[in-house]
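Propose amino acids for all 229 sites.
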């Protein structure tokens, strides 16, 4: 019971806490306008242009915190508040996504690894939950063991993907923070708001890795106990 709590419940609570942190940090800093009144779109464009990137399209997408960089189509997507907004949160998020574009341009190794793993991870995510739940129900049978093994492999792929994601996200935030100050988009004394937003966002990726690792260890323990029977 204690192992189940440690591997499943604790990571789940950590994930909920991480989501609360990013939501509250974003809500707080999206209300603080930057002195320069530069929009998120303008900030992203300035950061990319400073790195010699002129072929990435910046588009607006619906939703909140749906911002992302699409390396396949060279498209930087910003949610409405971050596209038009001039807040510290908007500038931080926009510069972070521009940081991914810079990673793509310079061939940042961990981003390349992450991209190469994406197709396998999508497949693993699609089958892992179904296979594991069915495997737990049928754990006493031979097919249950096979299903749990397949689930463990899928979780291993997901866990590795989440682990590789960490340096990619941390590096993008590092680039964003440096460029916002270097380009004069944000004054140094405004950076606490940017830092709070980006650091809270980084915590969600840590939580995702912890959750994947906890689930993997749980399945491996089930398989180990089954072999000892």
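Proposal:
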């Amino acid at each position: 019971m204690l192992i189940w709590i440690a591997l499943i419940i604790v990571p789940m609570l950590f994930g909920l806490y991480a989501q609360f942190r990013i939501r509250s940090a974003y809500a707080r800093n999206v209300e603080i306008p930057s002195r320069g009144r530069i929009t998120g779109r303008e900030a992203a464009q300035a950061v990319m242009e400073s790195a010699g990137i002129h072929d990435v399209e910046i588009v607006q997408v619906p939703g909140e915190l749906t911002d992302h960089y699409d390396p396949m189509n060279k498209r930087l997507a910003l949610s409405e508040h971050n596209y038009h907004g001039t807040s510290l949160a908007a500038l931080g998020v926009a510069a972070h996504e521009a940081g991914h574009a810079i990673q793509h341009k310079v061939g940042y190794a961990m981003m390349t690894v992450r991209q190469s793993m994406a197709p396998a991870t999508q497949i693993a995510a699609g089958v892992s939950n179904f296979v594991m739940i069915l495997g737990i129900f049928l754990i006493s049978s031979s097919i249950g063991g096979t299903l749990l093994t397949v689930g463990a492999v899928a979780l291993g792929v997901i866990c590795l993907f989440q682990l590789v994601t960490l340096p990619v996200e941390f590096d993008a935030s590092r680039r964003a923070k440096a460029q916002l100050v270097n380009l004069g988009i944000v004054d140094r004394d405004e950076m606490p708001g940017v830092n709070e937003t980006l650091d809270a966002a980084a915590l969600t990726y840590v939580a995702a890795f912890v959750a994947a690792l906890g689930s993997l260890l749980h399945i491996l323990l089930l398989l180990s106990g089954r072999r000892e029977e």
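The longest strand covers residues 57-61. Helices lie at 2-29, 40-50, 80-84, 88-106, 109-137, 142-182, 191-228.
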